[in-house]
Amino acid sequence: MLSLFFAVISLLYAMVGQAGGTAFLALMAFSSLPSTEMRPTALGLNIVVASYSTWFLNRNKAIDWIALRPLLLSSMPAALAGSLLVLGEHVYRTLTGLVLLLASAVMIVRRGRVAHRVFEAPLWGSVSIGSVIGLVSGLTGVGGGVFLATALVTLNWASARQVTLLSPPFILANSTVGFVGVLFAGQFPCSDSAIYAVAALGGAIAGTVIGLKWLSQTAIRFILVAVLLIAGVQLVRT
After folding, report:
1. Could you give the CA distance from residue 170 to residue 144 in angstroms, rounded to a whole number?
2. CA distances from 86 to 73, 121, 142 (A)
3. pTM to 2 decimals?
4. With contact defined as beta carbons under 8 Å apart, do 125 and 157 qualify?
């Protein structure tokens, strides 16, 4: 049953250019997975989902690699540094819970309008945003796509469509270095991670291909916000 939820979450997130790291953590929190397995499992699932989305978008020449360069160069070292830090059970759950609550707040205020504009993030802005999001990604296991998208759109540095195309490779890069880091830190995915990965990949393929066909973006955001809020509160209270 949990595999089905991973597939559904992956499908919904892929529709809006995300991998689903925040919701993956939420589902694992519901299933009471140990914190030592939550982070590497979430990062591994992010890699699987974002790999397909990145391949699909790159094949269609939809990714602006020039705009991504400063974001990746600043976020990847930060993600690696964060992944090498092993937090205590209570600290990790509290921090991750707060990240999930922040992600839910971000999704509530995020607008779905598509503005046709050129990517205009200044170098200092890309470096600063990349560093902060990369560190959070490594520490908790989120991909960081939802924070990247919201920051760029809120600051009017990119359109909603542009951040949808930038998020998958950003998530892939940070999750990959983060996954390597947690392995060196002695943390490993849960025993059922391969099954979850297959389910998440199926959802990602469906979500990337069909896009937003049956559910409105508002409905998807409402469902995901509810999951993140409940899981965030659960983690903070434990």
Report:
1. 8
2. 23, 33, 15
3. 0.84
4. yes
